[in-house]
Predict the 3D structure of the following.
Amino acid sequence: MASPAEQVKRYLLAGVSYAIPFVAAGGIMIATAIAFVPMTPTGPDFSNAPFLKMILDIGAAAFSFLVPVLGGYIAFGIADRPGLVAGFVGGYIANQVGAGFLGGIVAGLIAGGVVLGLKKIKLPPYLRPVMPILVIPVISSLVVGFIMYQVIGSPIKDFMTFLTEWLKGMSAGSSVVLALIIGAMIAFDMGGPVNKVAFFFGVAMIKDGNFAVMGAAAAAICIPPIGLGLATLLGKKLWAEEEREAGYAALAMGMIGITEGAIPFAAGDPIRVIPTIMAGSMVGAVIAMLGGVGDHAPHGGPIVLPVVDNRIMYIIAIVAGSLTVALIINTLRKIAAAQRERNAA
């Protein structure tokens, strides 16, 4: 019988396998659109490119399903079809309250558990047919929705406020320490609330004439997807075919500064992936800060190179951070594979 940890991993992978096509399709369309428009000090400029803007919007629409699909199919992996509604609802609300993909994972796990509990309730035979199509979806959605709005949403909002004020205090201290914090926050939840606090702090610093913070953030933003995509190329035997396909999409998204390209990897193996990408982004952010990199645009990745100060150091920071991620994660996967072989022997 599988251990609880193995069961949870199986549920997470169930969600990831359905989410990957949304990430790949949406991310590649977004990457294509941004890659072909001018990059200005205010970010990508779509004002004279309506067709590319349409591609961007279609890609964003596909990408917006990532967290609901992740939550829905994690719940499906736990409780089968009756878990889908509550999982999707919980994932959607996770997006609304700013909980990101981590909130989607929590929503999926809660939804699956609630539905499993409801399925165990003994009812008269004449009520059983309506349970999976009416009673379970309604009750489970209410329970999951209440938890996501009332229990998870409010603390996340308060936490974001605290982090913003904390970063303001840190900006007066050591630049290296600030870069380490920015890098770790950017990578931690890949577009979630912690990531957004660090990103918008960098944007605020641009308005104040300080481009170095955004320079560190811009390098950190693209390192998780580029590093993981690179890992799938360097260690092909360590990754399943589906993961290698996600790696190509992650590379494309990393090139135009979409940290969310790393989410399928982090959702499937959070214990190894999240600390690894945090380390890589911290390396890149510190190198960028020490190298005097300044980013004049509220965006990240190689795509902003035209509006970056000290471009060579910016490239070095991204390469160093990405290699850090690729080498560490592949080493950890080799160790895990060897451990499984020993256990099977």
In short: DSSP finds 13 helices and four strands in the chain.
